[in-house]
Design a protein that fits this description.
By secondary structure, this protein is α+β, with helices and mostly antiparallel strands. The chain contains 19 helices and ten strands. Keywords: ATP-binding, Kinase, Nucleotide-binding, Transferase.
Length: 525
């Protein structure tokens, strides 16, 4: 126990201190009971003359945060002698404690998706109240106590800051003036930590992205593995490693959503408001695509995934043999109803006549008209259903004669891509975009494939870095296209940037672009 905790009295105001829950640089936190009401709280205690009076700062933010989901309630606060105290909700374990106690190198994907959805939602609420957290980390996110054990709470607002000026009610200005770093070494954004920039909403969200990637990376992010730097030289090495880490390297092997979130945060403008709901939806869809529930309740220990694979209707060989043997042993002779064969001979003769009459007329016709029906034929054994549907759409696109038909084909393409758990654009999908581009640009020219097998890593990296910005621009501009040729250029840009991005997945912005493309095709017909 620290010397400070030994000096702290057992009674502060009306709160009787019990066991110490934790301590840090700026103070200690105890479980405490109100001597009159019996209310149990977490009591944060700090010396009033501390050089970093975080309790005083926190006290100013709690009134703005009260009532928010996942925001602790402030029950009391004040100064008693030389001690500044805050009485807040007693909560459960932090995410850091859960992660460490699990003994695993990474956290499971379902839990990480739940953390993503809930923490982004908490940031949305805090930011709506004009407050930045500025210290996003696993230790500052905790689960509640029953019955709120599935809710993640944000705590520790000692480093928080208002980004909306109290007098002008406008966003604080950006500045290039040198500033001291406030935050944590592991997850504070590269801009704030490594480049000394003024923090804004984008930096809180980037910290969440880095925290999520850390949870899915064996042994965590590389710059977290040597502990807190103890010298300026060690800190500079950490900052350099963090600054030079590329999103595609940090997220290699992870679902594409994590890299896209990190890139999205880094392309936001200083005063720009993030699209929180977009990313909540992205992680909900990611969870569902892996067989987990759509609910963002944080369940610990994590439940097993629910299999989405339909049960086979094929009878096992042994079972089928038993059924046939049982049928062979059936004695129908004594059952007059089942054994009545009076009409059997007549039925056989009639069937033979029908076959003879129809044999000359029966032919099998394969026409392009049947290709519009999704269930007209079964995909070949060597071809997946998704690839088969996309190949059929490509054939129909090549023969389309007007914008209305192309618009309907684009909508069908979206439907096929969304109906599959994987949003990856396979070669048959690129073939569809190739055919669509050809029809829009000039129906008389040959298709020039967008999909390439080039191994030029530098080219892939450059395009990957630009993917989110390009797709977002296409989504915004598609409604202003004045001709089919302009739409063709957009389709070509979309295909190329998707091809050269990691994962080759269609994002939410990508689907929005395609939906806008379908609408604009009808407008220009």
């Amino acid at each position: 126990m620290s010397s400070e905790s030994e000096e702290i009295p057992h009674l502060i105001a009306n709160w009787w201190l019990q066991e110490r829950l934790g301590s840090g640089y700026s103070g200690s936190i105890f479980k405490a009971i109100h001597v009159h009401t019996g209310k149990v709280v977490a009591l944060k205690v700090q010396r009033v003359d501390h050089e970093c009076p975080t309790n005083r700062y926190e006290r100013g933010f709690y009134p703005s945060l009260q009532g928010g989901v996942g925001m602790p309630t402030l029950w009391a606060s004040g100064v008693e002698g030389m001690w500044d105290y805050l009485a807040i909700d007693l909560l459960g374990s932090s995410l850091d404690s859960l992660y460490r106690r699990s003994g695993k190198e990474t956290m499971d994907l379902r839990s990480v998706c739940c953390i993503a959805m809930q923490v982004i939602s908490r940031l949305e609420f805090m930011h709506s109240r004009g407050i930045l957290h500025r210290d996003i980390q696993l230790g500052n996110a905790t689960i509640g106590l029953p019955p709120d054990e599935k809710t993640i709470y944000m705590i520790d607002f000692g480093f928080s800051k208002r980004y909306i000026d109290a007098y002008t009610h406008r966003h604080i200005p950006d500045s290039k003036a040198k500033r001291d770093f406030i935050g944590n070494y592991w997850f504070s954004s590269v801009g704030v930590h490594c480049r000394g920039k003024v923090p804004s909403r984008r930096d809180d969200l980037e910290a969440v992205a880095l925290m999520l990637i850390h949870l899915l990376t064996p042994r965590g992010l590389s710059w977290t593995r040597n502990g807190v730097p103890k010298t300026d030289a060690a800190h500079e090495i950490l900052k350099r490693e963090k600054r030079l880490a590329r999103p595609e390297d940090l997220c290699r092997g992870l679902p594409n959503e994590f890299e896209e979130l990190l890139r999205y945060c880094r392309q936001l403008k200083f005063q720009e408001c993030p699209d929180y709901q977009q990313w909540i939806d992205e992680f909900r869809e990611l969870s569902e695509s892996h067989g987990f529930p759509s609910s963002y309740d944080f369940v610990w220990p994590p439940p097993k995934p629910v299999s989405t694979k339909p049960k086979s209707t094929v009878t096992a060989a042994d079972d089928l043999a038993n059924v046939l043997n049982d049928l062979g042993r059936m004695n129908l002779g004594d059952n007059q109803t089942l054994a009545d064969r009076t009409n059997v001979a007549q039925a056989v003769r009639q069937a033979k006549q029908d076959v003879g009459q129809d044999s000359d007329k029966r032919t099998i016709t394969i026409s392009s008209d049947s290709e519009g029906q999704e269930n007209d034929t079964v995909p070949p054994a060597f071809m997946a259903p998704k690839a088969y549907k996309l190949a059929k759409l490509t054939n129909r696109t090549s023969s389309a004669t007007d914008n209305a038909a192309l618009s309907e084909l684009v909508l069908e393409f979206i439907k096929v891509m969304k109906s599959n758990t994987s949003r990856t654009l396979i070669k048959d999908g690129f073939a569809f975009l190739d055919a669509l581009n050809k029809q829009l640009e000039d129906p008389s020219v040959f298709v020039v494939p967008m999909r390439t097998r080039s191994k030029d890593i530098s080219l892939q990296t450059e395009t990957s870095n630009a993917k989110l910005g390009v797709v977002a621009r296409l989504r915004r501009e598609v409604g202003n296209a004045k001709s089919n040729r302009q739409l063709a250029t957009m389709v070509q840009d979309f295909g190329r940037v998707t091809n050269r991005s990691s994962g080759r997945t269609i994002t939410k912005d990508g689907f929005s672009f395609l939906e806008g493309l379908a609408r604009q095709l009808k407008t220009l017909q």
